[in-house]
């Protein structure tokens, strides 16, 4: 049990020592008839480890996971002296329809599964005794993707004096920024929950990126009992180091609140960045005066084999890989981001479009958030903006995704209310709404004979209609323009999902309109990106998706079945299979293609279509990439036909097989950055040469793995970790040079000895039959990933071996240092 220490957040201990299990009725709970609760630590996703089945209610939307309800329990001891304290639990997100009970009394609820919310415990506590916290959550046909169930994001316990700075009580802006001088405006809320009038002092220290103090201010404030007041301070910072994508310099404000005697009663630390934002159709988006084109990735909230659990190190790894792949912006689809993900974006220099809702009042699934929207939307906007306010990475708020109401007068009015609510809370960022013209006119188009009949939505919903209409989307532009004009007019930038046909036409009809391609097909980047770079009013492109995700199963698959088609894949499909980066963090060929189009990679890239399907007929929705892998190790006979794709910005590409030229093909922008070669398989080396004016300027090769030297290889990004850290173990079937075998996957058994626990184990296989909680998995394209959490100091050993002992095992050993930040724990 965690010991409550005065005036601090008990982060690392409060997330430990919970129990969880299926939600029990009152009779089951008191009679003990229900299954016992299991010990868990937060964050936790109860759904990930449940059995999937073909008859799951939500079908492919949820990845064939069932719905359900779960409850979490924790006991804390509150000492008598804490009668003069305020205790607040902060939940970063509970999916979904959360109910919080303290000593069996209802203390809070939150329908939105991604909203951060606070629960004041004081009215329900028994002092000098143990106190029970119970959190209930549930999910059932309420989303179009995998959500998870439970306390899937972090939680913290705040212990405050009666005189204190509330959570989110410090707001920082930088109204003046020049090369030699900046003004940091700090607004600090102070609350007096005591019974006497007090005069307090608010002292704010500003530290620069190197940790040295660069400014300080002290201000008194008098508060009557029950009062709250805002203390405003303007602090000069000389020669400020600005925050940007390429140089994400962070400053820190240390706020100290002291009472009349000089005793410190509260402290807060706030990280922020000094940077300017401007936006207009003539010069586009500028940060610190410099133009920035958004190389954007839409991402969902899940962390692949971890399910929906949001660990800080998993989020940082995700942002780092996305940035290494060439992205400089992410759009949170379709929910507010977790706090650890925002913090990672701040540190690493990733721009953020934080999105509030996937639905307003019009439901997309039978039991979704639309049922609670009318009562809760304002509080959810307030929560998102309060949490985002000091994060320099956040530059846009999106108020919705493909909202059908945006094509109606009433919906346009509602959008205006939401946008103005955001601006009232934070006038320093821009507001958009990700509008899909088809979704905005769906019923009207159905009545006109487009897509499905009005009375019957297709199995894949809007996804299937968009896939089927193709170029027909252009034909509905006049109707769409009339219907969404008011909804667009309330925004700082028009977010368009699959609205490329409007990019240039709107420039003529609305020359001052700024446009963002908020969601685009992965294969359209070659056409879209030149428009972004040439036209300032078009400030970016966000692909669907940058990182693969669970649910919407198979919308990006290549289907070789005779009766294939549609965007809903059958069981056991799990992931969408449409990401540039797969769920384990491995970059797929589309990622390298995009990097080349962005102008960030000079070397060509080789992708080989799976030879076993050569010549077969296939179908693929517009979110699919070619069924290719960057490999020259295949289980086919020499001489078997293969198709090779080479991506390059070069005028021309030459392909060599074992030194023999297979010819030259045109490439570059005029040819979609792609050259296709018909070849035959021969083990050895395949080399692509990029040519400009007939001269080589870059080359890249793939080689066949040495099958006589194959082993299970394990790689981690560090050899020393601290207790509580996550260890990402990349497992491959490869030779000593790291060349991976494709098409000869093996079962892998994971064994952990020492202070560590497996959090997840799996591969990027989009249609797995194994659970990510199992200690045995099958590789996919020769790869797998294990995520292990170090639990204590000592030596941690992780072994990955084939289940049939056919290859030498891979072993990694790590030294685990104690977690010096963890508070002490005690048992009552």
Automatic annotation (TrEMBL):
<feature type="domain" description="Glycoside hydrolase family 2">
    <location>
        <begin position="714"/>
        <end position="803"/>
    </location>
</feature>
<protein>
    <submittedName>
        <fullName>Glycoside hydrolase family 2 protein</fullName>
    </submittedName>
</protein>
<dbReference type="Pfam" id="PF16355">
    <property type="entry name" value="DUF4982"/>
</dbReference>
<dbReference type="InterPro" id="IPR017853">
    <property type="entry name" value="GH"/>
</dbReference>
<comment type="similarity">
    <text>Belongs to the glycosyl hydrolase 2 family.</text>
</comment>
<dbReference type="InterPro" id="IPR013783">
    <property type="entry name" value="Ig-like_fold"/>
</dbReference>
<dbReference type="InterPro" id="IPR032311">
    <property type="entry name" value="DUF4982"/>
</dbReference>
<feature type="domain" description="Glycoside hydrolase family 2 catalytic">
    <location>
        <begin position="285"/>
        <end position="443"/>
    </location>
</feature>
<dbReference type="InterPro" id="IPR040605">
    <property type="entry name" value="Glyco_hydro2_dom5"/>
</dbReference>
<dbReference type="Pfam" id="PF18565">
    <property type="entry name" value="Glyco_hydro2_C5"/>
</dbReference>
<dbReference type="InterPro" id="IPR006102">
    <property type="entry name" value="Ig-like_GH2"/>
</dbReference>
<dbReference type="InterPro" id="IPR051913">
    <property type="entry name" value="GH2_Domain-Containing"/>
</dbReference>
<dbReference type="Pfam" id="PF00703">
    <property type="entry name" value="Glyco_hydro_2"/>
</dbReference>
<keyword id="KW-0326">Glycosidase</keyword>
<dbReference type="Pfam" id="PF02836">
    <property type="entry name" value="Glyco_hydro_2_C"/>
</dbReference>
<keyword id="KW-0378">Hydrolase</keyword>
<feature type="domain" description="DUF4982">
    <location>
        <begin position="639"/>
        <end position="697"/>
    </location>
</feature>
<dbReference type="InterPro" id="IPR008979">
    <property type="entry name" value="Galactose-bd-like_sf"/>
</dbReference>
<feature type="domain" description="Glycoside hydrolase family 2 immunoglobulin-like beta-sandwich">
    <location>
        <begin position="167"/>
        <end position="275"/>
    </location>
</feature>
<dbReference type="GO" id="GO:0016787">
    <property type="term" value="F:hydrolase activity"/>
</dbReference>
<dbReference type="InterPro" id="IPR006101">
    <property type="entry name" value="Glyco_hydro_2"/>
</dbReference>
<dbReference type="InterPro" id="IPR006103">
    <property type="entry name" value="Glyco_hydro_2_cat"/>
</dbReference>
<dbReference type="InterPro" id="IPR036156">
    <property type="entry name" value="Beta-gal/glucu_dom_sf"/>
</dbReference>
């Amino acid at each position: 049990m965690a010991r409550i220490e005065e005036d601090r957040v008990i982060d690392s201990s409060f997330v430990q020592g919970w129990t969880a299990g299926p939600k029990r009725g009152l009779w089951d709970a008191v009679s003990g008839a229900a299954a016992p609760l299991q010990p868990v630590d937060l964050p936790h996703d109860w759904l990930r480890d449940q059995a999937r089945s073909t008859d799951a209610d939500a079908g492919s939307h949820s990845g064939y996971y069932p719905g359900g309800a779960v409850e979490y329990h924790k006991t804390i001891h509150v000492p008598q002296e804490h009668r003069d304290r305020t205790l607040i639990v902060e939940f970063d997100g509970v999916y979904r329809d959360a109910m919080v009970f303290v000593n069996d009394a209802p203390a809070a609820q939150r329908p939105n599964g991604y909203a951060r919310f606070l629960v004041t415990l004081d009215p329900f506590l028994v002092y000098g005794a143990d106190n029970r916290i119970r959190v209930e959550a549930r999910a059932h046909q309420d989303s179009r993707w995998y959500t998870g169930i439970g306390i899937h994001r972090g939680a913290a316990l705040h212990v405050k004096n009666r005189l204190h700075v509330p959570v989110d009580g410090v707001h920082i802006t930088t109204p003046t920024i020049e090369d030699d001088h900046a003004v940091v405006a700090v607004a600090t809320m102070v609350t007096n929950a005591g019974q006497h009038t007090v005069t307090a002092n608010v002292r704010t220290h500003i530290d620069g990126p190197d940790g040295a103090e660069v400014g300080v201010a002290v201000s008194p404030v008098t508060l009557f009992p029950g009062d709250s007041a805002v203390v405003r301070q303007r602090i000069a910072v000389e020669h400020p180091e600005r925050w940007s994508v390429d140089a994400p310099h962070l400053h820190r404000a240390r706020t100290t609140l002291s009472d009349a005697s000089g005793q410190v009663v509260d402290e807060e630390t706030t990280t922020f960045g000094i940077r300017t934002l401007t936006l207009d159709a003539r010069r586009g988006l500028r940060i610190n005066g410099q133009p920035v084109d958004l190389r954007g990735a839409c991402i969902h909230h899940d962390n692949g084999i971890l399910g929906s659990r949001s660990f800080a190190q998993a989020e940082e790894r995700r942002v780092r890989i996305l940035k290494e792949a060439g992205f400089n912006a992410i759009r949170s689809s379709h929910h507010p981001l977790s706090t650890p993900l925002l913090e990672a974006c701040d540190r690493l220099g990733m721009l953020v479009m934080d999105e509030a809702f996937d639905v307003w009042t019009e439901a997309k699934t039978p039991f979704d958030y639309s049922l609670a929207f009318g009562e809760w939307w304002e509080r959810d906007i307030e929560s998102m903006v309060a949490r985002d306010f000091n994060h320099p990475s956040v530059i846009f708020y999106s108020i919705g995704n493909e909202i059908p109401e945006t094509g109606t007068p009433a919906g346009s009015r509602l959008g205006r209310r939401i946008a103005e609510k955001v601006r009232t809370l934070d006038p320093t960022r821009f507001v958009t709404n990700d509008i899909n013209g088809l979704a905005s006119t769906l019923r009207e188009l159905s009545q006109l004979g487009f897509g499905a009949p009005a009375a019957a939505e297709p199995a894949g919903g809007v996804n299937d209609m968009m896939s089927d209409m193709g170029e027909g989307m252009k034909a509905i532009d006049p109707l769409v323009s009339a219907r969404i004009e008011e909804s667009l007019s309330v925004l700082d930038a028009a977010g368009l999902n699959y609205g490329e046909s409007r990019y240039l036409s709107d420039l003529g009809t609305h020359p001052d309109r700024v446009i963002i391609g908020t969601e685009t097909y992965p294969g359209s980047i070659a056409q879209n990106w030149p428009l972004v770079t040439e036209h300032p009013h078009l400030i970016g492109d966000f692909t669907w998706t940058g990182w693969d995700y669970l649910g919407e199963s198979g919308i990006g698959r290549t289907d070789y079945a005779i009766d294939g088609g549609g965007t809903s894949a059958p069981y056991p499909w799990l992931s969408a299979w449409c990401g540039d980066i797969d769920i384990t963090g491995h970059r797929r060929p589309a990622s390298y293609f995009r990097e080349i189009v962005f102008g960030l990679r000079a070397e060509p890239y080789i992708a080989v279509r799976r030879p076993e399907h050569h010549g077969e007929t296939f179908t693929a929705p517009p979110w699919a990439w070619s069924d290719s892998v960057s490999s020259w190790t295949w289980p086919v006979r020499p001489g078997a036909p293969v198709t090779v794709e080479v991506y390059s910005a070069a005028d021309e590409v030459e392909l060599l097989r074992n030194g023999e030229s297979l010819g030259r093909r045109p490439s570059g922008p005029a040819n979609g950055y792609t050259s296709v070669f018909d070849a035959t398989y021969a083990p050895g080396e395949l080399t692509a040469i990029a040519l400009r004016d007939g001269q080589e300027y870059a080359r890249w090769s793939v080689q066949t793995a040495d099958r006589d030297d194959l082993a299970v290889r394990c790689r981690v990004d560090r050899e020393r970790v601290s207790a509580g850290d996550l260890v990402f173990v990349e497992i491959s079937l490869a030779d000593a040079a790291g060349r991976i075998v494709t098409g000869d996957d093996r079962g892998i058994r994971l064994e952990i000895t020492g202070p560590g626990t497996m959090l997840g184990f799996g591969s990027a296989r989009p249609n797995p039959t194994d659970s990510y909680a199992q200690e045995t998995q099958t590789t996919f394209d020769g790869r797998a990933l294990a995520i292990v959490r170090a639990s204590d100091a000592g030596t941690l050993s992780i072994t990955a071996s084939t289940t049939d002992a056919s290859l030498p095992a891979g072993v990694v050993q790590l030294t685990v240092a104690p977690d010096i930040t963890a508070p002490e724990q005690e048992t009552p």
